[in-house]
Specification:
Helix content: 25-40%
Structural class: alpha/beta
CATH topology: Lysozyme-like
Largest sheet: 6 strands, mixed
CATH architecture: 3-Layer(aba) Sandwich
Number of strands: 14
Shape: globular
CATH superfamily: Peptidoglycan recognition protein-like
Strand content: 15-25%
CATH class: Alpha Beta
Number of helices: 9
Length: 339
């Protein structure tokens, strides 16, 4: 064999090996192969990230889809945007979310609008995680209120059994906390809320003692089928007695969240803090480490990067209420991250 054909054969062999290796890296599975998720993933700029806790996304059969225009809980024939405009005046636009435009340059806005977010840009923008209670008691009712009646949205909902529902990609600007929307991620935790002690009778509609004297969550019949993911779920607040505390200068009473909710929230928060470097694993506190239980002054809020309550953002809000155990929550998140 002459030198030229032999050299050509070597080059051809190297090329074919590289070509097929490249094809293999692009398509390691046969076309049409289903990709099975573990069931704990959240979606961030189109990428999947494990959380270690159950997550149902808007793509899943039992999910809540905030991308949909129609009202979720009205009859199908009455749910279109045209019918919705006739039925309610509070919904002024078919979209319940928008783009995180404010932190972006004009060039970046055009790029994100046309081709979607890249993770590094999103990591530069997000630096807050806002904790709400939904005052609805269960996530089903929460989504109904937000989506069908108020034209609002939130990236995550956390039901009483610890199931996390993701309604939007984290890249979207959900309408959940006014001035925080462009830079934050929000979560609505299922809890009927906090009330002044003299007007806390609603708590008696949601909580009662069982035969052993333990306080148990009782979803009122008026809710109907609550769509709790865990079959035959029975929920107990993490503390047996109601918690009384002061938020925004008001004395309030509230039952604690369930242990399942704390566990899921801790895992989700650890995940978000790892994904977003600017999201500090901390909560608003003074120099002595005491929780700040009011809205942050504008200058402090502007420079705050971390986890915070809805009441830290707005003076007219009191969620997640006095029962939310901030120190336990954040210390547990730090422990998970350290692992």
């Amino acid at each position: 064999m002459s030198v030229v054909p032999r050299t050509f054969a070597i080059i051809l062999t190297v090329f074919l090996c590289g070509f097929f290796a490249g094809c293999a890296s692009l398509a390691p599975h046969a076309p049409g192969t289903a990709l099975k998720r573990s069931g704990d993933e959240i979606i961030v700029a189109g990428q999947l990230f494990h959380t270690g806790t159950r997550v149902i996304t808007w793509l899943d059969p039992q999910g809540y889809d905030a991308y949909r225009v129609e009202r979720r809980f009205s009859p199908l024939a009455e749910s279109s945007w045209e019918k919705t405009q006739q039925a309610t005046k509070e919904l002024t636009t078919p979209n319940r979310y928008s783009m995180r435009a404010a932190p972006l340059s004009s060039e970046e806005q055009e790029r994100m609008r046309g081709g979607g977010w890249d993770l590094p840009t999103l990591q530069r923008v997000i630096d807050q995680f806002v904790i709400h209670y939904d005052e609805c008691g269960v996530s089903k009712v929460c989504f109904n209120v937000l989506h069908d009646h108020r034209g609002l949205s939130v990236q995550f909902m956390l039901d009483v059994d610890g199931t996390i529902y993701q309604t939007l990609d984290v890249k979207e600007r959900a309408r959940q906390a006014t001035i925080a929307n462009d830079r934050s991620i929000g979560i609505e935790i299922a809890n009927i809320g906090a009330y002044a002690p003299k007007s806390a009778s609603v708590l008696g509609e949601w909580y009662t003692k069982d035969a052993n004297g333990k306080m148990v969550l009782r979803i009122p019949q008026s809710v109907g089928d609550a769509w709790i993911y865990t079959p035959h779920y029975v929920g107990y607040p993490a503390r047996n007695e109601p918690v009384v505390g002061v938020i925004q200068g008001q004395e309030l009473m509230q039952y604690d969240y369930t242990p399942e909710q704390y566990k899921a929230l801790i895992n989700l928060t650890a995940t978000l803090c790892k994904i977003f470097p600017k999201l500090t694993c901390d909560y608003p506190h003074d120099e002595k480490g005491n929780l700040i239980n009011r809205k942050l002054p504008d200058s402090e809020y502007k420079n705050y990067h971390g986890v915070l309550g809805h009441y830290h953002v707005q003076t007219n809000k009191i969620d997640p209420g006095p029962a939310f155990n901030w120190s336990y929550y954040i210390n547990s998140v730090r422990s998970v991250m350290a692992q």
